[in-house]
Design brief:
Pfam families: Myosin_head. The chain has 739 residues and is α+β, with helices and mostly antiparallel strands. It has 21 helices and 19 strands. A hairpin with a 5-residue loop joins strand 18 and strand 19. It starts with 8 loop residues before the first helix and ends with a helix. The protein binds adenosine-5'-triphosphate and magnesium ion (MG).
Length: 739
């Protein structure tokens, strides 16, 4: 958390806590935060703060706002609590200090924060803490709760593991899977001698790590792809019946380029280390130093990692997941071919580039021994490009640099396909499609998903891929914030505000304020027509003046015949509606996307209370209503009545839908649920459109003065209330949909 994200002191601490001797935190250049005490009381008149720090130094600084007040420390008896939400003061130094105390004093790496489990990466062998009883207490926190909720509420669950690169996401995700496998395995029936599904789920880990993990500066085993593993259960969660894995955005650029101190995908180094293994013997691999694709990062060894042993594990996992000998050897043959391809160099020839003579042996071995393809063809397609015109196909020679790029592109494409194929095969093995097609096999009724994506990283120069990874992390954090928003009380309202503020700042920087709000609309819950007061309002105006039977015949004549006052009313109505539309949409977008409760930050630090805007707009409508009522024209009166009826109708329908939507969202998450919700909510709108159009025709024909004015005024008052109700309903429904 940087200074910007740090919670405002003014919001958190009351003034009487800042007395002489109060224990506070002060930012420190090396220790990050250091404890201290206040040397003097702080009051409204105070312009300078004097602190005595724990390192016996005295600090004095000027304050001009509440934000500059020091953070207060928690009472000693609270420090070390296993749930951060129990702390009196929940801010950056309090969180860090509590986690530190737990880690150092009691070697506890897990701490609750409401519904979130915070894990500290110990970077040490902590196998002792994963004893069965500890797993039940902590690791179970994510896994067990998800498992319990799934059984108790009949709902699929997902666990998001997030954090920067090297934070321990993959390790934690593996523990969650291990926990789930052990819970379900203990109750599973015998699998007739075959590898159990739980063992297969766990066996997918070494394969995915070999082909999708690398050494980076921050993490020796960094995942370079995102994964969502879905463990399917039946019998209300008592038994695992399969699993499914989805992967995202494999970092392909790493195959052909690695920065200093980094490595290519582990599998290549494992193969080189185990080159004498019977499975690899025929490939005649050399040490990793022999391959251009493996040496760009410098030293290829990772302290404490035995690549050969990892190769054995990979092989075992592949066999366990049902890959046969031929498939396994083809996988390694393809990978060995990629290493040879990386050693193919080019030189500038007379008319085009050509494979350099020093690479002749590589390319011929690659084509004959590895891939069994025509060497002539490969030479042509590495150094030429095919251009298809309308009726013609021509080939264009490539320059040396272009040929290198084309070689690298081929490597990336082949590896990505191999990766995709392996994931597909693993999925088949995890679903056991071929082996157990028994009709008695139970269908999956729900799942627990574990999302582990590559962590956030920043370098001096960030590639586009890194940018995308970081953006994906921010997006995920945003999603997470929205989910946690409904559990404000459990996570700690203040901490959530910090998380949300930090995330908004980043999202704004990356995609701009407009995109932040349009992002809101992309959330699968934007208001349905019936519930969005602004949309329905403007639709009513269009319908009333231009579509309704009263004026549809000739709107021009109709408007021309209106008196001055009525024209003014009409203009007010249209402009008022347009203003209403844009303002409420704007506020709602910001509301639903990023800002908890009723506070919307709009451009810069300006803060707008949503209720203020609503009151302003509603006030405008009241004035407008009064003007309309005095005009007393039948059409204007009709509009009021119809608007009221329309809003009341939609409001009642939306109320009736409330319970339904709850049930609906329980059963159908994802696209189906959204479609259902939208179609359900548009129905009342359509119905009320037809109904109110018919009524408009009736009113314009039959109602006469003086009742028009009285009814008009009453109608507008009712309209006012129904608007407020609708606004509230729409807000509630948007929040529910986000949840
Ligand atoms: N609970 C743990 N116990 C012991 N060591 C751990 C634990 N969690 C993480 N580590 C260590 O930290 C390293 C990095 O963890 P991990 O690979 O899970 O990070 P990550 O968050 O998935 O990073 P990335 O986003 O780069 O994939 C592990 O290789 C392991 O050495
Ligand atoms: Mg990882």
């Amino acid at each position: 958390m940087d200074g910007d994200a740090t919670l405002g002191r003014g919001q958190v601490f009351s003034g009487q806590n800042y007395k002489k001797g109060a224990r506070i935190w002060h930012r420190h250049p090396h220790l990050v935060w250091i404890g201290g005490v206040l040397e003097e009381d702080i009051s409204f008149q105070t312009r300078q703060v004097r602190l005595k720090l724990e390192d016996d130094t005295t600090v004095e600084y000027d304050i001009t706002s509440l934000e500059q007040l020091p953070f207060l420390r928690n009472p000693a008896f609270l420090v070390g609590k296993d749930d951060l939400t129990l702390l009196s003061y929940l801010h950056e130094p309090a969180v860090l200090h509590n986690l530190q105390v737990r880690f150092v004093n009691s070697q506890s790496i897990y701490t609750y924060c409401g519904i979130v489990l915070v894990a500290i990466n110990p970077y040490a062998d902590c196998s002792h803490i994963y004893r069965e009883e500890i797993i039940q207490v902590y690791q179970g926190a994510g896994g067990e709760e998800a498992h319990f909720d799934m059984g108790a509420f009949g709902k699929s669950q997902s666990i998001i593991v997030s954090g920067e690169s090297g934070a321990g996401k993959t390790v934690s995700a593996k523990f969650v899977m291990r926990y789930l496998a052990s819970v379900a395995a203990s109750r599973s029936r015998s699998d007739q001698g075959r590898t159990t599904i739980e063992a297969r789920v766990l066996a997918s880990n070494p394969i995915m790590e070999s082909i999708g993990n690398v050494k980076t500066i921050r993490n020796d085993n960094s995942s370079r792809f995102g994964t969502f593993i879905q463990i399917n259960f039946c019998e209300r969660g008592r038994r695992i019946i399969g699993a499914e894995m989805k992967t995202y955005l494999l970092e392909k650029s790493r195959l052909v380029f690695q920065a200093g101190g980094e490595r290519n995908y582990h599998v290549f180094y494992q193969m080189c280390a185990a080159r004498n293994h019977p499975v690899l013997k025929d490939l005649h691999l050399g040490p990793c130093e022999a391959y251009g694709y493996l040496t760009q990062g410098g030293d290829s060894r990772i302290p404490g990692v035995d690549d050969r042993a990892d190769f054995e594990e990979l092989l075992k996992a592949l066999q366990m997941l049902g890959f046969d000998g031929k498939q396994i050897s083809e996988v390694f043959r393809l990978l060995a071919g990629l290493l040879l391809l990386g050693n193919v160099h080019f030189e500038n020839g007379e008319s085009s580039s050509a494979v350099s003579p020093e690479s002749a042996q590589e390319i011929s071995r690659l084509c004959r021994e590895m891939w069994e393809i025509s060497e002539g063809d490969l030479r042509v397609w590495l150094t030429r490009r095919e251009i298809r015109a309308v009726n013609e196909v021509v080939t264009k020679p490539l320059t040396k640099n272009e040929a290198v790029r084309s070689r690298d592109a081929l490597t990336k494409m082949l590896y990505a396909h191999l990766f995709g194929w392996l994931v597909e095969k693993i999925n088949e093995a995890l679903n056991d499609k071929e082996k157990a097609p028994s009709p008695s096999k139970k269908r999956s009724d729900r799942f627990i998903g574990v999302l582990d994506i590559y962590g956030f990283e920043t370098f001096d120069i960030n590639s586009f891929e890194q940018f995308s990874i970081n953006y994906a992390n921010e997006k995920l954090q945003q999603q997470f914030n929205q989910h946690v928003e409904k559990n404000r009380d459990s996570i700690g309202e203040k901490l959530l505000d910090v998380m949300v503020a930090a995330n908004i700042q980043t999202m704004r920087t990356v995609i701009g304020p407009a995109a932040v709000s349009s992002g809101a609309k992309s959330i699968p819950i934007t208001f349905s027509s019936s519930q969005n007061p602004s949309t329905s309002f403007i639709m009513m105006i269009i319908m009333t003046f231009f579509v309704s039977p009263v004026c549809a015949s000739d709107p021009y004549v109709y408007i021309k015949n209106l008196g001055e006052l009525e024209k003014l009313c009409l203009m007010l109505l249209i402009f008022g509606a347009l203003g209403w539309l844009s303002l409420t949409n704007y506020v709602f977008c910001i509301e639903e996307e990023i800002i908890p409760r009723n506070r919307a930050r709009v451009r810069g630090n300006e803060s707008i209370e949503m209720s203020t805007i609503s009151a302003l707009l509603l006030g405008m409508i009241v004035i407008f209503g009064a003007v309309c009522a005095t005009a007393g024209r039948v059409e204007i009166f009709s509009i009021s009545i119809i608007l009221v009826l329309f809003y009341l109708f939609t409001f009642l329908v939306s109320l009736a839908n409330d319970e339904d939507q709850h049930g609906l969202q329980r059963d159908h998450s994802g696209v189906l649920g959204i479609l259902n919700t939208v179609s359900k909510n548009t129905k009342p709108y359509l119905l009320s459109t037809v109904f109110s159009t018919a009524l408009l025709a009736f009113c314009s024909e039959h109602i006469i003065e003086p009742y028009q004015s009285i009814f008009g005024a009453m109608g507008l008052i009712l309209l006012l209330f129904s608007q407020i109700f609708l606004l509230h309903t729409a807000y509630k429904s948007s929040r529910r949909a986000i949840d």
